[in-house]
Write a structure and sequence with these properties.
Amino acid/polyamine transporter I; 81% helix
Length: 457
């Protein structure tokens, strides 16, 4: 189970999203909230998710309904929908990785400079090729879900460790480049006064949740199949620490290479252009060109990244299919609905940078709401009762830190969301109306959905 969950710790959240968030939020300034929220948000929530899944043997909607009653089922529904909306634009990212495998096979990335790699990524985003790659990603993922994903799991046993090894080697090579110290200084320099801005804290929490999987419901779904000996404490800790280790390796690989090979102006140009989300896609090929066997290393890197992205997409599709199956839909119908929604709702993000960025922002921040609902699950159940029934089954008492951690999650969510709403009302409105639509739909249909679910139980 630890190896399965560690697979969640390696993927596009680390390699694509993390460098973008670091660059957008001031380098080391971003790392402060990102690191703090690993321990005050992500790891405790992963423990809660693991415990709920293992204890109830239900997905998010069913777990809330059966453990807390029908009136709370809408919160489980929100968690599922949030993950499903991320799934739709995540398929677009997976499609990008497919295309870059093609580039690596053909050798077309070899020897390109910064301006040229930026142009390659710019040309891909919003193009017909991006649509084709999105369709391919959805088709491959849903086929593997339908047929069973054991083949991709076997491939991942080779490619994921290879990807981690390449990240470590890339970090070592990047740190030996002339001028790497400037990138290192950028990565770890903290502008303390900027920590008074709520956007950095929201971004740090959102990134931690996005990349660890805290609040997605994926850990909850995985742990439905957990064995009795699988520990709901050590597995989330290993997942969270592994996630942050990988992201630091990515940072050490990317930012020294940027400053050494293409200069700080290149970073500014990327963040001001359509390519701000593609730091890894643009910098990695340049770095690999500086390494012996760079074309082979680049191919293995993008194969590993595509495999990791596909594995995460499969997990999201499985969660989506199980959500639909809770309402007495057949497995085939649930998979067809999942594929159709992912395909149709993902196309706008494949075509429009603004739509892609909007969806990443809205549902990335939505993970904070999902985390709040999971904490409320524990509180409604009774913190001590939950801990002894689900989390610390072999103990006579609850560790003092656990009730504090759950209380802090609620406080963090409410303070950050309120602070953010006051400071950035325009951005907040983009989120609130989309979240509100989901919540309103569940409130209107709650009785019918619960009845269907209970009749099918």
């Amino acid at each position: 189970m630890i190896l399965t969950c560690m697979g969640m710790a390696v993927g596009t959240g680390n390699i694509w999203r993390f460098p973008r968030e670091v660059a957008a939020h001031g380098g080391g300034t971003f790392l402060i909230p990102w690191f703090i929220f690993l321990f005050l948000w992500s790891i405790p929530l992963l423990m809660v998710e693991f415990s709920i899944g293992k204890g109830t043997r239900h997905g998010p909607f069913g777990a809330f309904q059966h453990a807390l009653g029908s009136k709370a089922s809408w919160m489980g529904g929100f968690i599922s929908i949030c993950a499903m909306m991320i799934m739709c634009y995540y398929a677009v990212i997976t499609g990008w990785t497919f295309r870059y495998v093609g580039y690596a096979v053909s050798g077309s990335l070899a020897g390109l400079n910064g301006e040229q790699t930026l142009g390659v990524f710019d040309a891909l985003r919003g193009s017909s090729t991006a649509i084709v790659c999105h369709i391919a990603a959805v088709a491959v993922a849903i086929l593997l879900v339908a047929k069973g994903a054991r083949s991709i799991e076997r491939v991942n046993k080779i490619l994921i460790p290879t990807l981690i090894a390449i990240l470590i080697l890339g970090a070592i090579r990047s740190l030996t480049l002339d001028g790497a110290s400037s990138g290192l200084a950028y990565l770890f320099h903290v502008e303390w006064h900027r920590l008074a801005e709520p956007g950095h804290w929201i971004a740090g929490l959102s990134q931690s949740a996005w990349s660890t999987g805290a609040g997605w419901g994926l850990m909850l779904s995985y742990s439905v199949y957990a064995r009795d000996q699988d520990d709901p404490v050590t597995t989330p800790i290993a997942t969270g620490l592994g996630n942050n280790f990988i992201e630091i390796m990515v940072g050490l690989m990317m930012f020294p290479a940027i400053f050494a090979l293409v200069g700080p102006d290149f970073l500014a140009d990327m963040m001001a252009s359509r390519s701000q989300g593609g730091i890894a896609f643009q910098v990695a090929p340049i770095l690999f060109s500086e390494m012996a066997g760079g074309q082979i290393i680049g191919l293995l890197f993008f194969l590993g990244l595509a495999s990791a992205a596909l594995t995460s997409l499969i997990a999201m599709m499985e969660l989506s299919a199980r959500f639909f199956q809770d309402f007495r839909l057949s497995r085939g119908t649930a998979l067809s609905l999942t594929a159709g929604l992912c395909l149709v709702l993902g196309i706008p993000s494949a075509l429009s940078d603004n739509m892609f960025d909007n969806q990443d922002f809205v549902w990335g921040v939505g993970l904070i709401v999902s985390g709040l609902f999971l904490a409320l699950f524990v509180i409604h159940k009774g913190v001590n009762r939950f801990a002894l029934e689900f989390l610390f089954r072999n103990r006579q008492s609850v560790p003092a830190w656990f009730p504090i951690a759950i209380g802090l999650i609620v406080v963090e969510a409410l303070i950050l969301m309120g602070w953010w709403l006051i400071a950035y009302p325009t951005y907040a409105i983009q989120c609130i109306w989309q979240w509100g639509l989901v919540v309103l739909t569940f409130f209107i249909l709650r009785s019918r959905l619960v009845k269907i679910s209970e009749d099918g139980a």
